[in-house]
Amino acid sequence: MTAAAIELRDLRWVIVAAKHRSLRQAAEALHIRQSTLSRRLRDLEYRLGATLFERSNGGTRPTAAGYEFLEAARRIVEEVDTVFSRLRTRGRGENGQLTIGVYASLSTGNLRATLTDHHRRFPDVDVYTIDGGHDRLMCDLITSAIDIAIMTTCGPSWDDRRLPLWSERVIVAMPAQHPFCARSMINWSDLVNERVLFPQRGPGPELERLLTAKLHGSGPQRILHHDVSLDRLLSLVGAEYGMLLMLEGATGVHYEGVVYREVHEEEGPTRLDFTAYWRQANNNPTLEPFLAMLRERHPDLSAGT
Question: Can you say whether the dihedral through the CA atoms of 260, 263, 267, 272 is positive or negative?
Fold first, then answer.
């Protein structure tokens, strides 16, 4: 007799019969007739060529062979139940892997709060983050290297799914010894002739374009590019190498000798809008619950998005 001839139901019935030590009680627990259970167990013993239970007026007890069979049956049933449970929850997006392209710092702000909320709701989903600029993250979306990208709103080149999210203020980080630290905020015109540091990744290029547009006609700017992480740039600011334009999501970490100030224009603080981008054809089950959470936190009020 091969293992394939034994049904999973047989294993479960043997486990229940051994648990109750009574065919009557086991049958009641299984919601079947006692005669049906007895006949099924005897048929299984016949096919195995071994007696699994000793039957007497005092009840039903596993034999030595029965205990050996029970050990294997419990292990098989537990493994099958675990697999079925994982497949069911994976189909609902409750476990698996979600890869998110991120564009800015996670030290504070809406993106950090969103990921924190998602982990609380779906602790069995493994979230992986990939950093990059607009072009890289859009390419990663197209090639399915990432499931969703969260970054500042770009042009109309993306013709798939998108969801408007939050906005973040533009912040200037400056040395604590700088005279501008006495002010509560900074105007764009104040940055003329200031040495400004920019990272070559993330929002750096976009913030540089913004600075150039705001100071158009003011002459060439003193701009220094660095291919390093944000924390190293902030360390350079603290060492008085210059100022750094960044988004407010990066202000959750404080560095010695560094002061943060909002950058204002006539209408108030300068803000950049963030949007979520993804492909409608993406079939990763973990994506839809994440999107539902984003829509819950940031309802889409635009038409045709």
Answer: negative
**Count of other CB atoms within 10 angstroms of residue 305:** 10
DSSP conformation class of 77? H
Q: Tell me the per-residue pLDDT of 43-98, one tens digit each, with 9 for 90 and over.
A: 998 888 899 999 888 788 999 998 999 999 999 888 887 777 666 656 556 668 99
Q: Single out the residue of 39, 259, 279, 31 nearest to residue 160, CA to CA.
A: 279
Which stretch of DSSP H or E encloses residue 19? Answer: helix 8-20
Closest among 157, 112, 113, 117 to 138, alpha carbons compared: 157
CB 289 within 8 A of CB 94: yes
**At 159, is the secondary structure helix, strand, or coil?**
coil
The number of angstroms, rounded, from the C-alpha of 237 to the middle of its chain's C-alpha atoms is 32
pTM: 0.68
φ, ψ of residue 101 in degrees (nearest 5) = -85, 125
Tokens of residue 155, six digits: 């042009």
Question: Could you give all domains of the chain from N- to C-terminal order, each with its CATH number?
Answer: 3-91 (1.10.10.10), 96-166+272-297 (3.40.190.10), 168-271 (3.40.190.10)
